[in-house]
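Folding Query — how this chain folds
Tokens — whole-number codes for backbone shape
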Amino acid sequence: MRRGEVVLVDFGHPAGHEAGFVRPALVLTGERFNRSGLFAAVPITRTRRGYPTHVEIESPLRQVSHVQCEHLRTISADRVIRSLGQAEPAVLARVEQIVSEFLEL
């Protein structure tokens, strides 16, 4: 997996307000970290909620969706079903900015 790649992930059953089930996610960590078998990613939803932590994404998906930056997760590579393609650089940059603000880095 590569930073900025959109992958289809089986998040399993959610608890509370967690993102769950099978859905796309945007990979945020680089290849060096990803080789460990874990990677950091944020899930993607088709539901537009208007949250300031959501970033609109269309490519490589077939419809407009929203990256849920507030749901940052560390995920096992074993949960990945397949790659869907690469996100636009502007989308990745905006997601990184929001995650940084969200974590107060």
Q: What stands out?
A: The radius of gyration is 12 Å.
